[in-house]
Amino acid sequence: MNKRLTLALTSVAMVCSTAGIARTHGATPPDITREQARARAQQLFATFDVNGDGIVTRQEARTVGSRLLLQRAATGRDAAPGIGGRTRKYLENAFAGMQWVTEQQFEDTFLAHFDQMDTDHDGILTSAERSAAVSK
């Protein structure tokens, strides 16, 4: 397993997660559709693909992830709200050992995680479904 890429993708995934911030501020994360999750995956990938070459390397993920985590810590605002607290572990497992990730790989994995948490398979991830996933 490539620990550097795992660490970098952990930064990506932590930026994806809203569970901790939402609880801290007493807010409930909004329900999101699968298409909104797809759009968020694309936006997040574009944020991390600094040179626009269609792949996110571990260096890009590490650099941008660190910046976004610091921004989140300073402002209390999540730069990429969405899927929930298990995203980090899901992405770590999915991309373990990889040197880089393509946009399609990232989007497919992001949506597979959405589908896993969308337990009633209606294409809408509710707060209740996210909470259930986090408590597993």
Instruction: Give the amount of beta strand, in percent.
Output: 5-15%
Number of strands: 4
Strand order of the largest sheet: 1-4
Number of helices: 7
Average pLDDT across residues?
Answer: 77
* Largest sheet, strands/sense/barrel: 2 strands, antiparallel
**Alpha-carbon Rg, integer:** 14 Å
**Percent of residues in helical segments?**
55-70%
Work out the count of structural domains: 1
- State the secondary-structure class: mainly alpha
SSE order, as H and E? HHEHEHHEHEH
Description:
The protein has helices at residues 3-16, 19-24, 34-48, 58-75, 87-95, 103-117, 127-135, and strands at 32-33, 55-57, 100-102, 124-125. It has 136 residues and is mainly alpha-helical. The chain has one domain (3-135). The strands form two sheets. A two-stranded antiparallel sheet has the order 1-4. A two-stranded antiparallel ribbon has the order 2-3. Helix 1 (3-16) packs parallel to helix 4 (58-75). The longest helix has 18 residues, at 58-75. The two termini are 25 Å apart. Mean pLDDT is 77; it is low at 4-8 and 17-24.
In short:
This protein has 136 residues and is mainly alpha-helical. It has one domain.
